[in-house]
Amino acid sequence: VFIAQSRASGSHRDVEDEELTRIFVMIPKSYTEEDLREKFKMYGDIEYCSIIKNKTTGESKGLGYVRYLKPSQAARAIEECDRSYRAILAEPKNKSSESFEHDYYNNNNTRQEPRGNTLPFCGQPEFCSFEKNESRIQESVSKRLSVVSRLPFIQEQLFALFDLVPGLEYCDVQRDPHTNSGYAVIQYSTAASAIYAKYKLHGFEYPPGNRLTVIFLEDGSDSSE
């Protein structure tokens, strides 16, 4: 909804939109900003690139930001870029960037056993940061999601909401004649898209005042993938 509003206003500079258009990547320390732009321009229109440098020496820390004009372009970059870049969504600028960079660097350079607040396949560092701030038991990841709401869903509206994340295969709204609650099954072409959708839309108020509950559903695939 807020993506649609920002498009209607002709601006992509809203705080919410920034959360969806700026990605954080791990790069060789030899990279310049032009090198970074060259590697990521194939995924969409880049507003700016920046490399994080040591304040004392001016040397690259091997980390950088890429800001796209559209959320769909940032999502595509995360989905399709080489896994060595460890691409994830960046924290908003108004949050502590140094602590975010420190956590990100540590998560991507140390192998450790998954804890209760990390995804089960944290051996793949590109997904480690998605739910690092949520305390929950380990989940079995899949390409299929269950969406529950206190209010009934409208098929077209729910499809449009989840279709903001690339790779949506189907959205099946189911109705219970005995209750007024909403229930739907969502499936994406990849587990990465499902993880991204769950991360952004679990707890999302749709319509305002009605929070969505989004969880993984078993789809018969091997979650270790």
From TrEMBL:
SMART domains from the UniProt entry: RRM (SM00360)
PROSITE patterns for this protein: RRM (PS50102)
Record-annotated membrane-spanning stretches: none
Any one GO MF annotation of this record: RNA binding
Organism domain of life: Eukaryota
InterPro entries tied to this protein: Nucleotide-bd_a/b_plait_sf, RBD_domain_sf, RBM45_RRM2, RBM45_RRM3, RRM_dom, SLIRP/GR-RBP-like
Domain RRM: 21-95
Keyword RNA-binding listed: yes
Record key words, sorted: RNA-binding
Name by which UniProt lists this protein: RBM45 protein
Taxonomic lineage: Eukaryota, Metazoa, Chordata, Craniata, Vertebrata
